[in-house]
Amino acid sequence: MNRTNGEHKENLRLRARRRQLSLTQEELAERVGVHEYSIRRWEAGTDQPQPLNLRKLCQVLGASQVELGFCEEAPGPDGIAEALEIARLADSSDVGPELIESTQLAVERLRRQYSNTSSRVLGEEIRPRLRVVSQLLQGRMRLSQHRDLLQAGGWLALLLATVSWDLKQRQNAFAYRDLAWQFSRQTGDQELEAWAQETPAWFALIEKRYQETVELSRSAQEIAPKSFATVAGLLQEGRAWARLGATSQSVSALSKAHGVLERMPVPARLDDHYTVDPAKWEFYAGTCYALLGQSREAERHARAVIAESSDPGGENYWPARVAISHIDLGLALAQRGQFDEAGHEAGQAFSSPVCHRSTMQRAGELDQMLARRSEVPQVRDFHERYLQAAQAGTP
């Protein structure tokens, strides 16, 4: 807490997060809907925000109460044990009709929040919902309700696997992914099963196991060949081939993904993490072309994503996607020797309210590439912002 034995202690976490997002106290106050004086008192540790203001503050800054210094960090639950317990209940349950509909609605909402919410905050919302599923699986219900509940739990588990991975909780991530896969097999939900294969493909990509990424991605494509998971699998495959320097295979995967996507209906919710729309295809294409050194194509796609997904009031607002696209754009410009523009554009990534683990990984790669150009002011600024963000940690 910020108060100890009646003494005031400065809230350095809140101040650091505000500065990380390049916000003045006045700008933050305007977004939260309070007077600038309140922000000054909160940062000085002389006052605490009311619950509604605290909730709004966390939303604006994309961070949890713990990350903003308003409460002590509590030990988190054991993700592996929790996943195993829920799996055990799923095997033995034959009951539970209550709250199924509200759980399904919560799943839809949480799937959409991944696009604009910090991983820690989102994880804090998913866990209680997954515990509700655990409790409901112990009640009486019809067979169809049991299946609906398992599906909802499967999507929650898969999303929690992704969030856990963002937070570098590797064992928990795989445990929740395995739980989602088990639920998909029990319910016969091929779309969920396919996404449960695509997710570890992404894990493998982050860990530089590129051949394994290709294999897992193709497995996802085989499970549900006419789903959004197939498009996502092809896009992950394209990124893996780009990492391996296999231009023809990467471009071929992008082309196949585009072809499948053209035959798919427009997603009802463009900000749903488990759908793919043209802007998401552009995002993956920009990354692939940047990794392949095709800077003109990379720049074109990256700028398209930034234009499409930067508006907080827009239908397709994806700050995390925009952040990586700024890194891709910086890489493309650096490949053409435009180091001042590269540093400027890439630095915009750290203005995003959401920077996932993959954003920081890509930023680190670009930082190493630009290290020999430290005489350029924009490059130095990018390096300093990268170090500040890395020190603050992935939200």
Q: In brief, what are we looking at here?
A:
The chain has 395 residues and is mostly helical. Helix content is 69%, strand content 1%. A hairpin with a 2-residue loop joins β1 and β2.
Shape by Cα distribution: globular
**In angstroms, what is the radius of gyration?**
22 Å
The neighbouring-strand order within the major sheet is 1-2
Mean pLDDT: 87
Which percent bin holds the helix content?
A: 55-70%
Summarize the helix and strand pattern as letters. EEHHHHHHHHHHHHHHHHHHH
**What's the assembly state of these chains?**
single chain
Main β-sheet, in a few words? 2 strands, antiparallel
Please give the alpha-carbon distance between the first and last residues.
19 Å
Write down how many β-strands occur, each being a DSSP E stretch of 2 or more residues.
2
Strand content: under 5%
The structural class is: mainly alpha
Q: Point out poorly predicted stretches.
A: 1-6, 93-97
The helix tally amounts to 19
Task: Give a description of the structure.
The protein has helices at 12-20, 25-32, 36-44, 51-61, 79-92, 100-113, 119-136, 143-166, 170-187, 190-206, 210-223, 228-243, 247-262, 278-291, 295-309, 319-335, 339-347, 357-370, 377-392; strands spanning 3-4, 7-8. The chain is built from 19 helices and two strands. Among the domains are: 3-61, 434 Repressor (Amino-terminal Domain), CATH 1.10.260; 76-187, no CATH class. α12 packs antiparallel against α13 (247-262). The chain has 395 residues and is an all-alpha fold. β1 and β2 (7-8) form a beta hairpin.
